[in-house]
Structures are given as C-alpha cells and as structure tokens.
Design goal:
Number of strands of chain B: 14
CATH superfamily of the largest domain in chain B: NADH-ubiquinone oxidoreductase 51kDa subunit
Number of helices of chain A: 6
Largest interface: A-B, 24 and 23 residues
Helix content of chain B: 40-55%
Strand order of the largest sheet of chain A: 2-1-3-5-7
Order of helices and strands of chain A: EHHEEEHEHHEEH
Oligomer: heterodimer
Radius of gyration of chain A: 18 Å
Number of domains of chain A: 1
CATH topology of chain A: Rossmann fold
Shape of chain B: globular
Distance between the termini of chain B: 63 Å
CATH class of the largest domain in chain B: Alpha Beta
Strand content of chain B: 5-15%
Structural class of chain B: alpha/beta
Strand content of chain A: 15-25%
Number of strands of chain A: 7
CATH class of chain A: Alpha Beta
Shape of chain A: elongated
Number of helices of chain B: 24
Largest sheet of chain B: 6 strands, mixed
Radius of gyration of chain B: 25 Å
Distance between the termini of chain A: 38 Å
CATH architecture of the largest domain in chain B: 3-Layer(aba) Sandwich
Largest sheet of chain A: 5 strands, parallel
Chain lengths: 182, 604
C-alpha cells in the first residue's frame, strides 16, 4: 500500500504547532515509516508537486499570501486539518481585529515606541509584499476545513493520535485531558 | 461636584448595597459619572474602585463621559423598525448633526440606540432625558431637535398632551397611552385598596399560602413556577430577615404589561407585595423597576407615601401586631438580564446584574443572602384577587394546568395593539381576531426568547403545557422579511444584552449572528443550517434561562420556517466562506497607498 502523503504549513502562526509535532519525540521515527512528507517546512519543499492526503495548517490568515497558500492546500489535500488556536480561531494575531488596519500599520511603522529609523515615514507598500487583510481570519472562514485540533499548541499526543486515526481511518480515543484550549 | 456627590452618598448613608442608587443620583446631578466621582464613591463606601467601575460599566444608561445635555435613546426593537424607525433615525442624525452613538459637537445632543423600552404598542419611541416620546415621525423629530436647540426644557418638548388614565396625572404627565383593550380580574379598575389586607389579618400566614396554592397560580414572568410553593419554601427557610422582591424589569422586547399595571394599579401591586410579606414572614419589599420607566418614579413614590399614610404599609398594618411591611423602589440602569431573578437580586445589591449559580435558590439565599421571594408584578396583583375571592374562584378561569388569566402585551402588525387580559386557553387565532391582525405571516410568542410560529400553528393554545408565555405577542405581517427584519433584530438584541458570564451566551450568539448574516448575504450553504441546529444544545450550558434561550429566534425559525433559509442558501456548492479577498485587502492597500493586485495579475 502506498504511504499516505502529508503536507504542512504555518500561516499566521508562531511555528509552535510545528514544534509540537516534533514533540512526539522518538515516535517521529514511527511516523516517517507510516507517511511521506511533501510540501512542508520539514522537507523545505516549496510547491505542490503531487496530491496529498492530509494537510496540516498552523495559523490563521492575516495577509493575501496566507490566503493563497491555504487555497492551494485545499486544492491539493484530500483532508485539511486546522491545527491549533490560531488556525481554529485566529489566536493571538487576531487581537488586532478590533483595531483598524491603518492604525495598526501606523503603530508598527510610525508611532511605536521602538520606531527610530523610519525618518521618511514609509509604510511598506512594495508589490512584492503580501497585502494585509482587514482582520485575521480563522482558516474555516476561507476554505472548508475537515477537522480541528484545539490547543496552543495542541499537545503532541493529540496530534499523533489524530494523525494515526486519519491514516488508519479509525475513530480516535483521546482522553479528555489531552484537549486544551489554551 | 465633590459636594453634590457627597450629598448623594449621605442620602444613602454610604451603604455599598445602594450603589445603583448612588450612581443613578450622581449621574442625575453631574450628567455623567466622572472618574473623580468613582474614586470618591469608592472611598466613601469602603470598596475598591473596580467594584464601582464594574457596576458602572455594566449598565448601558450609565455614562462615564459627558454624553450630551439631551440624551436621546431611540428604541431599536422589531416593532419600532416596522413602524418607520429608519426614517426617524435619519431625521435625528440630520437634525442633530451627529450619528447614533455620538454627541453633537456643541455637546448638546447625544444619540443612542437602546433595546425595547416597553412602548411596543406606540412605536417608534424614544427616551429623551427620561421623558418618553412615542409615535415619532421625521417631522416630530425635526421639531424636537429645533426646540432643544432653541433652549427649551425637555418637559416643554412634549406637545402631544398627555395619555389616558394616570398618564395624564400631574406626577406623570406623559404622552404614553395605556391601550387597555380587554380587562379581566387583574386589570379590573373596581378595586378597593386594603380589602385583601383586612382579610388576611384574620388568617394565619399558612392559610394565606394555602389559598394561593389552591388557586394553582404560576409565576407570570414566563418561567411559570407555582407561586404558592415558592412562598411556602421561603416561609419555611431559615432566616430572621426575609424579603419580597417584585420584578418590574420587563425587558423582553414586546412586553409592556407591567408598565400599564404600574401606571394604573400600583396600589394593587403594593398590596400584593404586603400579602406576600405576611405569608412568608418578610418585613421588607423591594420593587425593582427598569430604568426606562423612571418617568413613573414620582407617581410610584407618591402612591407609596399615600399607602403608608393609610396604614396599608408600615408598622402594624391594619392594626395587627407584628404585621410590619414596607417597600422601597429600586431602579435598574438598563440591562435586559436583570429580569432574571438572581441577576435582579445582584443588581438590587448594587452589583453587576450577573445571574447566580443555583442552588441555592433565592427562597433560601436571595437578597443579601436572606430568604427571598421574587415575583412578577402580575403574579402579585393576581394574589390580591385570589385572597379576595378565593382560590376556587380563581380556578374557574383558564384551563386545568393553567388557571386564571394572563395579561398579554400585543404589538406588531395589527389594528389594535395594546394590553389584553385573557383567560389561559385562548388560541393564537383568537388573539389575532381580537387584535385585528389581517394578514399575519408569523407570531412571536413570549418575546424573542420564546417561539416563532407560523399559520399552521395558530390554533395552538396559550397555556403552560402548550404555548407558555410571559405575555409578549408580536404579530408579523406578510409584508415583512422574517429573517432579515425580525430574526436578525432579535439576534442582535441577544448579542447586545448578554451579561458575558457564560461563554456560549457571549460567543455563540455572535457566531450564530455571523451565520445568519452569511445566509442573508447570499453566501449560505446547507452546512450552515446544519451547523446552527447542531450548536443549539450547547446553549443549554448557560447559567440562566435567558442565556439558554438566546438563540431561540434562529432555532425556532429554522424549525418552523425552514423554507426561508433553504430559499436563500446556495445549492450549487457545499462550502462558501463568504470571504472576498479583494474586499479584505482594500483597507490596508488604501492605508499604504498601494494599488490592490487583482487575482489575475497577482504574482502568486
């Protein structure tokens, strides 16, 4: 049987959820026996070269690039999983959602207490840069998400059990304590 | 300012449980409650500043900044919208020169939205510095603002004359109409104060409770707990001091029956509270009235004083040794949740109106931790008639499980909105005929937290075992967009009025609202309807009855009007997040002077 293929991405996240994947410790050896990793920071593959079975998304969408990556994942993955608080609900980056974008930009680049060098008062606007969204969106408001793993980050065993469940097509039994919402 | 705040503090003997009154009076004196006053109040009451601030910030009629010399609170209930609120809003904004939620540049006029102010039978209505203005039109709005700018006093702005009955009395002088369309045993104007009190002095408290139990009357606020049982529990509860609280915080949109009873029959209500006091052994009563009815304050205080003078309240009532009972009036400050009995108690103690965990129930540990009966206005009024005529007599009205009568507040698309006292057992059709509702599409029974029913259910019966109701019936005509005009309005109401204690009530209401908006915007899919149905039971986790019913407008309309949802959803796809990248980047591109890239020439 062909090994299932996994892709992962970190959007508006802190890579903490990816670290939590690594936190499965020596089981990582079992994991690479069970699956192949395709596009992922783990493999450093940048573009989808094949269809994948499972996509793990860390982080919500704060800019146009996040949206494109997420849509690309939806196109190329059979199953898409929101991993962690930011992907599920926007998380810490979404704290800006109550503040107008213009104000955020001014605080970051013009008026913030740590801004010293920007004497020409430039707000980044190069076409190469992604465009900032009006607010941070959870992934399921952009594309259809099949499963959600809560936590900041989700515990390693939760990620492990969920992956095994998806690979083997079995319902997983996760102890209540493994679910943490913060 | 310091001196006037001190005067207020002295008036309430710096009692922290009277914080609500202290803040209300401070605001009356100063116009708002500045930070300096907060500090002064905290010091004087011996509590921390945040204790003052958390009460202050909870109620929406309290202001922490200058909010305009004339504060216009325009009701935004469904019925106000039906009767042309939008045009009235525009007229206010144009004439005052500021938007809703703002104060005009000269600080003269502040415009604010507010939830139902209990005038659903005479909408659109507004409170301006606590004076009620009903049936507003753009023309009247322009006149009112012109007169405000010309320096008139708020009392002089009313040119319509006074309403009927006590509304015309010199202590009320309000243009509010009672619109009493049908009277029964409770609203019967042939009532002589003191008869019931005279009668109970010959009875033991147990006999009084027995008579109430015999009548089978159940609480008229909506939950329908047997009143006799509640009184008995409280009578048997341990405690030297006990309290009778009357809930006159009718905040359920579309309910205004208590307003009419408070206007026309306050003596009946006070007698009912004294009867309850005698039955449970309480010597103190509190009438908790919603802030919106402050225009009745002088009238109510006056009737209280007169009742005391007649020895129907105070020490040795009816000359009976040991029968002491007196009442004080407590005003709220704008919070729907305070209609929930434990939230009402918290508020009467000067705190945020957040419901308590139960048990213990108020009959064991209520106001200030003492055994407390909380009864609806109508329940207490009915109790007087039960004492006068007997429980058996009362049972001759209504049905077997729902005895007696119910005072209904009917509003919406009908010819004769107003107050109807009917026996339990009437069908919705009967009510529709009575009120002249020609082309009803739906009826909201029991207010937004109740049930939305369609024509195939109009033969259902108003009673506790079929369609229970606290008394609000809103009739929605064929011409209305049920989801957009009605369900969305109700959902906004619950988002606004959640006290925030329980997560599902605070957050799920917002998520439900987003889903409904998505469907209204044409981005809904079948899954959205399924999601909402699946999420519904989560609301049962909420602590209080109001939170548990906060998404009923949506759930009940999905159940009874599913086709309205099906008609609006997209059938050609299984997912639609409603996300529009172009729209989402517009603001940031504008801010950095950048041309938004379209999908086609995007580098991705």
């Amino acid at each position: 049987m062909r090994k299932p293929v996994i892709a992962t991405a970190s959007l508006a996240g802190c890579f903490g959820c990816h670290m939590s994947i690594l936190d499965i410790d020596e089981k990582i050896l079992d994991l690479i026996e069970l699956v192949d990793f395709h596009k992922s920071p783990i493999t450093d593959i940048k573009k989808f070269g094949r269809k994948c079975d499972i996509g793990l998304i860390e982080g919500g969408c704060c800019n146009s690039e996040n949206v494109h990556v997420l849509r690309d994942f939806r196109k190329n993955c059979k199953i898409l999983v929101s991993v962690g608080e930011c992907a599920v609900m926007g998380g810490l980056p979404a704290l800006r959602n109550g503040i107008p974008v213009a104000e955020c930009l001014e605080e970051a680049y013009l008026n913030g207490p740590t801004v010293h060098e920007n004497t020409e008062r430039i707000l980044p606007n190069d076409d190469e840069l992604p465009m900032i969204l009006d607010k941070v969106y959870p992934c399921h408001e952009i594309v259809k998400i099949d499963y959600f793993l809560p936590g900041c980050p989700p515990r390693a065993e939760l990620i492990w059990e969920a992956l095994i469940g998806l690979i083997q097509g079995k319902e997983i039994k996760i102890p209540y304590e493994a679910f943490k919402y913060d | 300012m310091k001196a006037s705040v001190q005067k207020v503090l002295d008036r309430y003997k710096s009692d922290p449980t009277r914080l609500m009154d202290i803040l209300i009076d401070t605001q009356s004196e100063v116009g708002y409650v500045p930070d300096a006053a907060v500090a002064q109040i905290a010091r004087s009451l011996g509590i921390s500043r945040v204790d003052v601030e958390q009460t202050l910030s909870f109620y929406h009629f309290f202001n922490r900044k200058p909010a305009g010399e004339f504060q216009v609170y325009l009701n935004n209930s469904v019925v106000a919208e039906m009767y042309g609120r939008r045009k009235v809003t525009e007229a206010f904004e144009e004439a005052a020169g500021c938007r809703f939620g703002q104060v005009s540049d000269d600080g003269l006029i502040g415009l604010y939205d507010t939830s139902c102010i209990g005038m659903n039978d005479q909408e659109p209505a507004a409170l301006i510095n606590n004076v009620v203005f009903t049936r507003l039109t753009p023309f009247r709005v322009r006149e009112i603002i012109r007169d405000i700018k010309a320096g008139k006093k708020v009392e002089d702005l009313v040119v319509e004359g006074a309403g009927d009955g006590e509304n015309a009395g010199k202590l009320v002088r309000s243009m509010v109409q009672n619109n009493i369309r049908k009277i029964g045993p409770v609203l019967d104007p042939e009532y002589i104060p003191g008869e019931a009190l005279k009668k109970i002095t010959r009875l033991t408290p147990e006999q009084v409770i027995q008579e109430i139990k015999l009548s089978n009357i159940r609480g008229r606020g909506g939950a329908g707990f047997p009143t006799g049982l509640k009184w008995e529990f409280c009578r048997k509860a341990q405690g030297i001091q006990k309290y009778i609280l009357c809930n006159a915080d009718e905040g359920e949109p579309g309910t205004f029956k208590d307003r009419v009873i408070l206007t026309e029959l306050p003596r009946l209500l006070f007698e009912g509270m004294a009867v309850a006091g005698y039955a449970v052994g309480a010597t103190e009563g509190i009438l908790y009235v919603r802030y919106e009815y402050r225009y009745l304050q002088r009238h109510l205080e006056n009737v209280l004083a007169e009742t005391r003078k007649k020895k129907l309240l105070g020490k040795k009532i009816m000359g009976k040794e040991g029968f002491d009972f007196d009442i004080r009036i407590q005003f709220g400050a704008g919070a729907y949740i305070c209609g929930e009995e434990s939230a009402l108690i918290e508020s009467a103690e000067g705190k945020r109106g957040e419901p308590r965990d139960r048990p213990p129930f108020p009959v064991e540990s209520g106001y200030l931790g003492c055994p407390t009966v909380v009864n609806n206005v109508e329940t207490l009024c009915s109790a007087v008639k039960i004492i006068l005529n007997g429980g058996e007599w009362y049972k001759s009205f209504g049905t077997k499980d729902s005895t007696g009568t119910k005072v209904l507040s009917v509003s919406g698309d009908c010819k004769y909105p107003g107050i109807y006292e009917v026996e339990w057992g009437f069908s919705v059709n009967d009510i529709l005929d009575m009120t002249g509702a020609d082309e009803p599409q739906a009826v909201q029974v029991g207010g937004p937290s109740g049930t939305l029913i369609g024509p195939d259910e109009f033969d259902r019966i108003l009673c506790y075992s079929d369609l229970a109701t606290g008394g609000s019936l809103i009739i929605i005509g064929k011409q209305r967009d049920l989801l957009k005009d009605v369900v969305m309005n109700f959902t906004d109401f619950f988002v606004e009025e959640s006290c925030g204690s329980c997560v599902p009530c605070r957050s799920m209401t917002v998520l439900f609202r987003q889903k409904l908006q998505k469907i209204l915007d044409g981005h809904g899919v079948k899954q959205d309807i399924e999601d909402m149905i699946a999420w519904g039971p989560t609301m049962k986790i909420n602590r209080c009855g109001l939170g548990q019913t906060a998404v009923n407008p949506i759930l009940s309309s999905i159940k009874n009007f599913r086709h309205l949802y099906e008609d609006r959803i997209r059938k050609d796809r299984s997912f639609d997040g409603g996300f529009d990248l172009q729209a989402a980047v517009a603001e940031s591109c504008w801010a950095v002077h950048r041309k938004p890239l379209t999908e086609e020439n995007d580098h991705e």
